[in-house]
Amino acid sequence: MNGEKERILFNITVFPGDDEYANEMADATYFRLNNILSGSEQFVNVLQICTKLNESNKILSDYIHNRCSALVKKNTVFSPEDKKINLIFNNVADSRRKNIRILLYPGAREDILKLKMNEATHNMIIQFKEDSAYFVPTEAHNNPPSFYQICLSEDIAILHSEALLVDSCMCHYLGVSDVAYHHDDKQKISADKVQFILECSKDESFLKTFSKDGRNLIKYVASKLKTDTPYISFLSIFTVAPYDIVKNFDSDVFAFFEDYCNLWKKFQEWYFKENGRVFYKEKEIVNPLEKVFDRNIYQGQISPSRIKVEIEKKILNPPQFIDDRPFGKEERFAIVLIKHIPDDTHSIAQLKALFPGELYPAKWDIVYWGEIHKYYDSGFDFEIVPFIIKL
To answer: In what order do the strands lie in the sheet with 382-390?
Structure first.
């Protein structure tokens, strides 16, 4: 299994455990996830989402399926008396700690105040509370990027787990993660999603593009969020929050699937704008190198005039957009840059199929995002820097 693709789930058994309900729910969630990953059960919505997408966007369908099935389980025992919470990761290699995404922790928060997971971009600590609402906003941990997610039951914990995984897939598929070039930028995406919901939930022109129930769900979730809420999963808005406010909700993700995709499309554009990565057909292109390659180590190896010319060429001769709904006809592009030139002639020949002509380090081209999977799947080491051209 590719270590870059796996995500790690930890079930922490607290010994001695004081909260019987939380212990029971943590174990039940862990066993349910074990059933899911062994094939005897399914995530509540992932299979439906992949089946739906398979009709129109197989690349995204396969991507979500593969990422969600690459969840690796770890189980450990922690004694609060030891006061060494970070020792729970002793059986995880340093290089893999960045992949830890979910902790099932049924113990007291004061016992994990010193937990540090600086390598990760985000880490959800699932805790259980018997009398909570279905949707509970996340709460900050002392040491970001960890945060708490309160769950009523193992069913809700499963929903939050799959929502985190699917949202992560969307973040990568739409290029949002690649806009966040540095590790601290990637950690900030979690808070940016919260800011986006808080801002846009007050914009009626934004809300009217959603279904009636979809609008109500977005406004309901926004009413629960604060400016310092550390994370929001967009999928949880449409799979967890409905249990609070939608009458006779039966866990049908397709009731709000279009709303979910619409929300991601709007966040994508909002996020690219926030980072200066949107260019317009009717406006002069100003400082594209500084905007697209902000804080990037390759900025000095690219001609500012050439990158402007190449973007203008895409405006004058736009590509034939790939209509892979629900994310088809996207006006998203990327600069793809060669980091390393391979040594063997076979690899060089393969690379030349993607970059015809003379090869040299930092050679680059502008690629339509609908073709970007060819570069991701090639096995070569590329720098991929996405942006949007509004045509």
So the answer is: 278-280, 382-390, 332-338, 364-368
Helices 154-173/46-54 angle, 10° precision: 30
Structure tokens at 39: 């094939």
- Structural contact between residues 222 and 197, judged by C-beta atoms closer than 8 angstroms: yes
Q: Rounded to whole angstroms, how far apart are CA atoms 382 and 233?
A: 29
Q: pLDDT tens across 261-279, in order? A: 999 999 999 999 999 999 9
Say how far apart CA 20 and CA 14 lie, in whole Å: 11
Task: Show the tokens assigned to 161.
Answer: 């787990």
Structure tokens at 28: 């039940």
The model scores a pTM over 0.90 = yes
DSSP state of 83: -
Say which amino acid occupies 74: K
The answer to whether the peptide bond before residue 326 is cis (omega within 30 degrees of 0) is yes
Q: Report d(CA 313, CA 110) in Å as an integer.
A: 58
For residue 1, the model assigns a pLDDT of 31
Dist CA 110 CA 114 (whole Å): 9
The pair of structure tokens assigned to 295 is: 């804080």
Residue 33 CA, chain-centre distance (Å), reads 20
